[in-house]
Design goal:
By secondary structure, the chain is α/β, with parallel strands linked by helices. It is built from 10 helices and 6 strands. It folds into 2 domains: 122 residues, 3-Layer(aba) Sandwich (Rossmann fold); 67 residues, Arc Repressor Mutant, subunit A (Orthogonal Bundle), CATH 1.10.10.10. Strands 2-1-3-4-5-6 form a 6-stranded parallel sheet, with helices on both faces. Strand 5, helix 5 and strand 6 form a beta-alpha-beta unit. The protein is globular and about 45 Å long. About 5% of the residues have low confidence.
Length: 209
């Protein structure tokens, strides 16, 4: 059972998400808080596996809450109405492993929680599309990745798994894993979501596969 703590300052939203998630057989909402401080206290007592966290709360700035929960070793899925590049970059670099927009379908919220619980990352398709479409110019080095690595990274940004990427590029899944590891090392990323955010910020997602 995946234990989830929801930190959201709008009771209607919090209660609605709780009701939706509790329909899932493998998810248990163990608590809800409306501030970062309360959420941290509850997390210490309830030991949630995943924290579903609103980005902007009364006692925290856009990324301060993410950093405070990440410092405690919590796995975080950001759940917010804000989809600007800066918000996404800062949240992921601050330690969030997932990023969802409010209004996402119930199945997507549950899927994101499962991905993050399993040590993976999750970007809402709408967020991934925003990153790929919205960043066309370079903000940093662009010669870090090889052409093949950039192609793999663009497919990662599109939400494809290693197996799907292998099929798309007609290469082995083992080769894909090699490329993904190299991408992480070159970008200084810890996970797929962070790699996509860094690459988007540097303008590495434009072009074809």
């Amino acid at each position: 059972m995946i234990r989830v703590l929801i930190v959201e300052d709008h009771p209607i939203v919090r209660e609605g998400v709780t009701a939706v998630l509790e329909r899932e057989r493998d998810i248990d909402v163990v608590g809800g808080a409306d501030t970062i401080g309360e959420g941290l206290r509850m997390a210490e007592k309830l030991h949630p596996d995943v924290v579903l966290l609103d980005l902007k709360l009364p006692d925290s700035d856009a990324v301060g809450g993410v950093a405070r929960f990440a410092h405690e070793g919590r796995r975080i899925v950001v759940f917010t109405a804000y989809d600007t590049d800066d918000d996404v970059f800062r949240a992921i670099q601050g330690g969030a492993r997932g990023y969802l927009l409010k209004g996402s379908p119930a199945a997507e919220i549950a899927e994101a929680i499962r991905h993050v619980y399993n040590g993976e990352s999750y970007l809402s398709p709408r967020i991934a599309a925003t990153l790929v479409k919205g960043v066309t110019g370079s903000r940093g080095r662009t010669g870090v990745l090889s052409a093949r690595e950039r192609g793999v990274l663009r497919l990662v940004a599109a939400g494809q798994s290693n197996r799907q990427i292998a099929g798309t590029l007609s290469i082995s899944e083992r080769t894909v894993k090699f490329h993904v590891t190299a991408i992480f090392n070159k970008l200084g990323a810890d996970n797929r979501a962070q790699a996509v955010a860094i690459a988007a910020e540097r303008g590495l997602l434009s072009g074809g596969v």
